[in-house]
Amino acid sequence: MTYEVVVIEGDGIGQEVVPAAVAVLESLDIDFEFATADAGDATKEATGEALPAATYEAAANADATLFGAAGETAADVILPLREAVGSFVNIRPAKAYPGVDAVRPETDVVFLRENTEGVYAGHEDRLSEDLSTLTRVVTSSASRELAEYACEFVADGRGPDHRDGFTVAHKANVMRETDGRFRNEVLSVADEHGVDADEELMDAFATKLPLDPSQYGVVVCPNLAGDVLSDLAAGLVGGLGLLPSANIGHDNALFEPVHGTAPDIAGEGIANPTAAILSAAMLVEYLGHVEAGRRVRDAVESVLSDGPRTGDLGGSATTDEVTAAVVDRL
Ligand code: NAI
Ligand code: MG
């Protein structure tokens, strides 16, 4: 079986870390056919469009897509790309690794973020010079779909080992109708599946997570809350260069490092490829090659603990040196 993977480097260090991730994929015993596609600031300058229709179509029809980052045009690229793959859940693991300086070395959490609605559904209006409004969208169907995914995720043992079940973070005490619906649906799906689920008000969670991250494993969130809380967790584990993410759809998915184009270091060949390589590991797992995904992850962890490291982690290695070390240890 050959998998068709669309590769979109984008701008800045996307052009450095995505080739690193592709090099790791190529060293695995899996048949990939890579098709490159364009998006981002440079593409907009050249063609007038940040996300050409051909790239959207390619992502929509591929087995999976690997994306780097886009600069100013990030929102014009990522939101439509998530739509192209029909993504209903954004998976964002935040794990501290041995050998990496982390604010909270015991952090090992995976956020499952609703990826289609909430306040990001985009119904904003300017009603007068003084007044703007936003309509928040929450459906039972999207909430239940996310919860079904979360139940499968924990049943498959994909969450951190130290915690069973999942936590749902919400603010249903204030947003009784919207977050109330989200909370009730998620907890009722967990109950139907016999999955152990507890709940936290999202503001209290934002205090408790940095104080004691070991209490949490898989965390299920509405869209905006998941965006903010996963970035908070990112801050606990030692830097943006380490965090991968996946946008999962029904028969399609998009994988991307959490970081942006890093204009301050772009073009120097010193970006940390870890986030992009871990995104590639998630891609491999999504395609069903769970063992190969684990091997990539183990190789990355091994390099992080005693191999060459890039400047963001206090080392002086290049992107290529770190990538070669990962491939070497696979
Ligand atoms: P950023 O993630 O690009 O950079 C923040 C800081 O982290 C910088 O100091 C950078 O050098 C460092 N950093 C990030 N990734 C790194 C890596 N792999 N290795 C070493 N250091 C790394 O975020 P920033 O500066 O807020 O945004 C820069 C541009 O990226 C903006 O134009 C923004 O719109 C875009 N962006 C795009 C995203 C995407 O396409 N998914 C996400 C976030 C930002
Ligand atoms: Mg964010």
Automatic annotation (TrEMBL):
Residues 4-326 form the Isopropylmalate dehydrogenase-like domain. The keyword Oxidoreductase applies. One of its GO terms (molecular function) is isocitrate dehydrogenase (NAD+) activity. GO terms for biological process: isocitrate metabolic process; tricarboxylic acid cycle. Keywords: Oxidoreductase. The keyword Oxidoreductase applies. Belongs to the isocitrate and isopropylmalate dehydrogenases family. This is 3-isopropylmalate dehydrogenase. It comes from Halorubrum aidingense JCM 13560.
